[in-house]
Amino acid sequence: MTTSAAVADVYLYGMTVVSTLHRVATTLSAAGGYVEITESRSCPGGETMNAAMLLSGLGVTCAVGGPHWGRDTREILERYTARYGIDARGVTRDDAFAGLCDYVVVHGSERTVFGRFGQYFAERPRRWDEADAHAIEHAQVVAIDPFFADSSERAAARAVRVAKPYVTIDCDYDSALHANAAVTVVSREFRRRRYVAAPDFELFGAYAARASGLTVFTSGPEPILFGRKYQSARSFRPFSVPVSSTLGAGDTFRAGMVFGVLRGLDDAACIRFAAGLAALLCTRFPIADNAPSLAEVEQFLANPELGPLASAAS
User: Is residue 3 domain-resident?
Assistant: First the structure.
């Protein structure tokens, strides 16, 4: 059984998992090779949980919904949501379900994810909740992951009905989820997988033409493209920092865009803030134990050429 989430600045609907992270000493080797593990941690992950922890670190109150928390995952998820003050009362606790986990091997900007997400989405009964209508109605901004098909679309429709701006990621250019979003962030990974033959400038035009809000294309360390319908695309070059890990950089950028929408920043300021937050995160590992404060982000953005605070990197 679940109860409705309390009122929060931001309601995030999407992936919450427990990730087992292994940092390795060298790049992943070919089949039959050997790679030394230098560090292992188990902590919350997933697009929604990562964004919620980051936003909470910035002083934003958050509530989350999405996958059921199972017998093997609920303890660590509940521990971290309590640590960050994230409201998860709307999430079903299901001891008949092991819980949603993944395993990630990380080396600098490289990562390989091992999971059972195909099985999870094919399984019946579904092991996820519908979005919390009460939380959407009382939030200032909503973040919606696209992974739950009709459930994600219903979450977006609820947000539209009560005039709440929402930020989404990696959805098709002709989807209702994109069409009604305040911001859609589309990663290079998704574009290469979904639109393998489409040049970015053509694809960006297709997204922007169908958007009521801001379209953003991220490409790792390459320039970010952003713009709106009937406007020329603009670009922003990400900040250069010493990289500890890029794991979760995309989730971090989306969290920064949510923060920008919440604070009423203009498009360029949103992009700059999100890029700064993502840059700071790339100097740290993992997200769950290293969420930057707003003061740290602001200090970095005031003097990005000086790099992150010396005390920030882990």
Answer: no
pLDDT in tens, 162-205: 999 999 999 999 999 999 999 999 999 999 999 998 999 999 99
Instruction: Tell me whether residue 2 is in a domain.
Output: no
Give all strands (DSSP E) within the chain, no chain letters. 10-13, 17-24, 37-45, 62-65, 69-70, 93-94, 101-107, 110-115, 141-144, 166-169, 183-187, 214-219, 222-227, 234-236
Q: What are the CA-CA distances from residue 161 to residues 106, 133, 184, 210, 293 (Å)?
A: 41, 11, 19, 19, 33
311 belongs to a structural domain: no
Give the whole-angstrom CA distance, residue 251 versus residue 240: 18
User: Does residue 313 sit within a domain?
Assistant: no
The number of folded domains in the chain is: 1
The candidate with the shortest Cα–Cα distance to 104, out of 21, 29, 24, is 21
